[in-house]
């Protein structure tokens, strides 16, 4: 047998006859004698734990809140605003007509100094990019390499044109590409919008091929969203790449570009919006968002508030436990609390 | 190859058998008209010594190979697959796996197929390994060697499996019989041999077999050359103690009875060799006919687990229905104005999303969601529990504290699926003989000519003093040590513990009645059927039919009357002759043995001494016979004994009675069955743990009560409630005869006694006086009748200890069943003999004692231990751990969706609520903290893969931390598993995320590129995990501090001690 069995069998002492004995071999595992630590939640530990959580959480909460507070954000909802007075009753007709003027110019005021880069987002609401049909309606293989151009399995009904030639990029996601555009000017001076590096590095390098060019895109009877320049490879079509990272929730933002310069307090920004994208059929909202970031990202007070709440709850609980112990003390390990000791003659 | 279990041949060749066909057999498939029909149940024909003859081979009886395997190579895959998919959860996943190949699947088919294959594969592998072990055992048995007559003056060796019906075999001493044989002859002239049937019925004593006189002359190998005979006997059946058949030999028919039958798996003892003819082979043998699949027992937890699975199913269907109804409504509305989601192309949709056929789409969606939320049904739960149980069985098997050094037997968990039940045992039903006691009789006291001898105290007296001692040294080991040291000192002369200086060392000569004492010892030494065996150390040991007989001969040996040789006609002693003053060898001619029968309750022998005196010895009396008296009786006796008669036994008894008269009483003996080591302590501890103990025994009421006191089941201060029908007026009633009236009055009597006892108990309720109920078998029969069983069990449940005496094996099983049904709690039956089998199988848990008695009880048990005292560790240590661990399987596996553990419905519900809380916290906190704002400083937002990874990381952390909080015990294994799981998750994210994006798709670089460098990601995890654990942590601390459970308190006590 295993010679190590003997060396570990220190505790059973007696030199057992090895030959045919059915005596089980000693090991700490089989005898369930592994060294174990048995953490016991004594009142002191419990109080300390709660207090500790509180002490850690409250500063984190404060830091997060301040980081979120530093972020300056301009949100401008333009879906209704950019429709002329007379078309307000039939927004869908307005957006679908090719005859209407979709340009819409507005002025936004910078509430606080915004240090560059200022990120430009478009925000859609009530738009279900996470719908199962929508999410699946793409062909990753086709997007990545020219060789797989014909792989359009899940793309129907935007897989091929009516004459059967392949659409690149195929599928509903690409077809419904967002096509509103924004341009900005301060004091009639146009501000440059940097549209580079708005997509993730990994997407550009590995998921969208540099040899894949748009083909037969938006050529069918029904035009969805934006058209693509057929001479630029997909890996450089960053708007498409951003759009094709589908959002998890029906309200989402997507990066449109960046303004690299600072925007000073109370500066008036003139925004020219080409309001092309149809969210009116399903009563979706459209926002233009200009936002700076801090180390925590964009503006969201939830995290900080939650940290503060949980932290203070824990502090409160630790106090509560202390008070409870003082009011109703129990000695640790007092056997008199065992039920059979409470009922001395009890036989059951 | 031999693995096939062949259908028993039903092709019969039989001319004289009239009438109907056997009902117990399937109708013969190949029976052609004209071929004879068998007598009902008596159709077997054995052509002795002619197995190859055309008539014999036409019978087509099965060969002697056996197979106990569940599967064969051919049917393993389909059969075990079928077994697997009978489990609801597995079947569900099988269907899901099929659907997952359709476009309905929300994920790739492999993600459902892989776990299913692993789970089913692992279980099948386990089945295969188990079956392979059985197969190996079968092969070993089938290939054992036996000597078979070759038809031409000699015997050759062959394998067991090659034996055919009708073969003549020669079996040597200490060999097992390869099949059911007809005993033809032995090396003794009178055709007797001894067999040990331990493997069949668990009895260790030797049984005498006797061949027919006509065949007993077939002594040597040559004599079989012309031996031809035909046996017509009963069909294969499972009755071990009956056999009916006729031997047709040389034109004469001889009736056969069980005395001539040697059963497979019994062993030849004390006989050099025997010759036999094979009657039943392979699966036709009685032992194989007996080997029925034990009733499969399922533990409570397993049953409740099924229920939980159904509940989960219901909730799954419920959730899915809500989801698909909503989906249907939404889809239908997709084309309506103001809700037209053009980006989904509802105008040109596939069937799964078609607004015009929303109902159908909803149905398909239902299937999809069923798959999506399928993780609610824990697929790996069964297999994980299986693994845990196997480990627990290993722990039980390997526990050194349950290993018995004397018999070299460790504990065995034979049914792993009952492990956790051990922790929930409420009632123990125990056998007495061999379970609580050693079943080795000891001669303790005797009374000779009115003077009592023997100074050692019996168990009863020990117990009386022991109680005080036990209470004084409550937790010191001394009580146990005391027993242990006693045990070892006695080893030198096993079965002998008689102490009295007046009798030992030859001192008896000086006693006033030395003459009577001399006779007394003679009786002990001569009046028996024991066989002396010289052991290796030249000591003489005895093999006796009953343990008390062995005790008598042993005591006689120790006191100077050593019985050292038995021949067919004589008994030889080394005995002390007081006249000569030294030891001499004396031989007594054995004239007659009047065997023991339970009807006569005595045995006697008639011997002729060397001085030509005729003596009849009976325990413990004697009579001097005159020749005139003896000779005519002897002639009568021999004639009667050899007659063939239906009530042969009764007539023999009558004749024996005629001579066993006018005996002179010498004295009385007291033998005691010693309690096993540590039994009282064990019972005490179990009682302290709140477990009720019942003793079911065949003993008389007085004996049972004594044993009850000896093992501390009955204590001073306990009030005994005795229900018995053994009272004078009842006995008088019994003599009157009228059966119906008697039944009725007995029933009423028992009913009255029970009612009185019940009212007494309820009256005394407040006083804390423990009660003990003692009931005898006769009363029990009435108490268990439908009209009384309720009140009887109410009474029994109210008592701390219950002793049922004079119970039959069937009653034992019946009591067990009633207790199980009535209390609805876990019952454990413990026993060692064949008579306990029913009880063991009936109870929730059957524990067999694998000590001295045979294997019958062990074979039908779920756990086997060597001694009763190990029960304490089995129940209180292993049982508790098993229960907690199995219960704890649930949160570990299944925290994110629905947590359910600790198998009481409120607790399950509690865990479910906790799970829902955690899930809600994880979902809302994550989605709100990572909303639409930038996820990182570089302005990127989180798409669904980032949100998904964050959320799932939170789940992994929460599940494992929850487990860590729940555990009360950490070894390196726990640390490895818990923290390892978390580390594994991160490793998985990194490794899987680095696969080419074709494989990893949305997981590609998610952690590496987006999450790892985002402070928001880490902050969210810290927040969410702590918040998700907070409700449970708060609750458990509140509960532990202010409403602690037992195990919490014990743990604190331990910590305090340290």
UniProtKB/TrEMBL annotation, chain A:
Its main location: membrane. One of its GO terms (cellular component) is plasma membrane. Residues 138-149 have a biased composition (Basic and acidic residues). It holds the Pfam family CDC50. Residues 1-28, 138-158 are annotated as: Disordered. InterPro entries: CDC50/LEM3_fam. The chain crosses the membrane at residues 40-63, 306-327. Residues 1-11 have a biased composition (Polar residues). Keywords: Membrane, Transmembrane, Transmembrane helix. It comes from the Eukaryota. It is found in: Membrane. Belongs to the CDC50/LEM3 family. This is ALA-interacting subunit. It comes from Musa balbisiana (Banana).
UniProtKB/TrEMBL annotation, chain B:
One of its GO terms (biological process) is phospholipid translocation. It is a multi-pass membrane protein. The active site is at 431 (4-aspartylphosphate intermediate). Signal peptide: none annotated. Mg(2+) binds at residues 431, 433, 832, 836. GO terms for cellular component: endoplasmic reticulum; plasma membrane. Residues 889-1045 form the P-type ATPase C-terminal domain. Its cofactor is Mg(2+). PROSITE patterns: ATPASE_E1_E2 (PS00154). ATP binds at residues 431-433, 549, 596, 619, 697-699, 806, 812, 835-836. PANTHER family: PHOSPHOLIPID-TRANSPORTING ATPASE 8-RELATED, PROBABLE PHOSPHOLIPID-TRANSPORTING ATPASE. This is Phospholipid-transporting ATPase. It comes from Musa balbisiana. The lineage of its organism: Eukaryota, Viridiplantae, Streptophyta, Embryophyta, Tracheophyta.
